Amino acid sequence: MLPAGARLTRRDEFASTIRHGRRAGRSRLVVHLDMASTTDPASQASPRAGFVVSKAVGNAVVRHRVTRRLRHLVAARLGTLPTGSSLVVRALPTAAAATSAELGAELDSALRSASKKLRGREPAR
């Protein structure tokens, strides 16, 4: 379970991360990673994460199972994210049939790619 302070909860937080963050897509999920600007007080906050699992993934039981797996995987990796970062993990329909190990491998790969893109970008807004 993610601690309350480590969760993205508001629509504008998700939208900002998706709009301004760096994206890395894989066959089962897409990761959006963004950093708060250095002048923003949120830049000193712990990393935060949110999940998007649409009805295209499956019925409610399947969606909740995928969300639980992703939440568990991200919780273990939250400490590796930079301070002040926000992460949105969007599950694709193929995530429903994936094992936790497969999701973990794709999550690691996508996070590496998004982090690399984030380090190479211009100074924050």
From TrEMBL:
Entry annotated with the keyword Magnesium: no
Gene Ontology molecular function: any one: ribonuclease P activity
InterPro entries tied to this protein: Ribosomal_Su5_D2-typ_SF, Ribsml_uS5_D2-typ_fold_subgr, RNase_P
UniProt keyword tRNA processing present: yes
Gene3D superfamilies: 3.30.230.10
Family recorded in the similarity comment: Belongs to the RnpA family.
Protein known as: Ribonuclease P protein component
Originating species: Pseudonocardia lutea
